Amino acid sequence: MMKSENHPISYNPKRTLEIRPLGGEMIKPAELIDIQGATGLSLAARRLYNRLLANAFGPDMGYEGRDFSIPLSELRGTHAGNERISDSIEALMKTVVIVRGLDGRTTRVQLLGGNDMVDSERRHGMLTYSFDKRLAPLLRESVVFAKLELAALQAFGTKYGLALYEALSRRVRLHHVFHEDFDVEAFRNLLGVPEGKLPSFGNLRQKAIDPAIAEVIKLAPFSCDVEPVERVGRKVTKVRLRWWVKTVDEMKAVYAESHTQHSLLLES
C-alpha cells in the first residue's frame, strides 16, 4: 500500500468508480493514464476515448461484459459525418496497451472492445460499446485518479499537450511530491510520441515538449517545466518533470495574454 503521506488528495478508499464527478469534469482512473502502447493514437481518438470513458463512468465499468450507449451526436463535435468517429473507434480497438497496477501486475488490454454503431434515417444515431474484460477488475480496484476539466480536454490542439495535461492532473494532487524523473524513452511514451519520430532530444523538445508545456500553462490550473537531469556524453538520457499549482498572479497573466490574443483576432 502507498505511504499515507504520498496519497494523492484524490485517493479514496471507496475506490475510483464510486467517486461522483462534479459538473464540467470527468474522473479518469490512473490505470488509464500512465499506459504504454498508445503512442499511435491521434488527438481525435484520444478525445473520443475520454468521451466514452466519461459516459460509461461508474460502478458498472468494474463488471465484465457490460455494454454502454452514447448518441453519435455527442461524439461528432464539429464534424457532421461519422467517418472520423469510425476511424477513431477502429484505432482504439487496434491499440493494445500495457497497464501496470499498483500491486505490480502487468496487464495487456485493448483500449476498446466490441461495439455496434447504428445511424439511419429511421433511428437516431447511437454507439453501443464495451471494454476489454481484463480492464474491468483493474478499474474495480482503482483508488487513484485524475480530475479532468471537460472544457480543457476539448481545447487542447495537440495530442502531446493533452497527454501531458492528463499525466500532470494525476500527479499535481500528490502530497509533498513536486517532481518526477523519467528516462527520455519513458517520457516520450508519456507524451505519446511514436517510435522513431523526433529521435534527438533537441527535436523532441522543440516539436513535442515545449508546445505541450505551453498548452498546459494556457489551459490548466497548474504549471510545469521539463529539464534534463542526466546526460551520457552529449546525449540527454533523463529529464525531470516539475509541477506546481498556479499562483493568483500566474492565473491573471494567463488570462491577460488570452484576452490580448482574442482582441487581436477580432481586429484582424
Describe this entry's structure for a reader.
Pfam families: Rep3_C, Rep3_N. Residues 28-168 form the Initiator Rep protein WH1 domain. This is Replication initiation protein. Belongs to the initiator RepB protein family. InterPro entries: Initiator_Rep_WH1 (IPR000525), WH-like_DNA-bd_sf (IPR036388), WH_DNA-bd_sf (IPR036390). With 268 residues, this protein is an alpha+beta fold. It has two domains: 4-148, Arc Repressor Mutant, subunit A; 156-267, Winged helix-like DNA-binding domain superfamily/Winged helix DNA-binding domain (Arc Repressor Mutant, subunit A), CATH 1.10.10. 38% of the residues lie in helices and 23% in strands. The chain is built from nine helices and eleven strands. The strands form four sheets. The chain has a three-stranded antiparallel beta sheet. Strands 3-7-6 form a three-stranded antiparallel beta sheet. The protein has a three-stranded antiparallel beta sheet with strand order 9-11-10. A hairpin with a 7-residue loop joins strand 6 (115-118) and strand 7. Helix 1 crosses helix 3 (83-94) and helix 6 (159-171) crosses helix 8. The longest helix is centred in the last third of the chain and has 20 residues, at 248-267. The chain is globular and about 55 Å long. It starts with 24 loop residues before the first strand and ends with a helix.
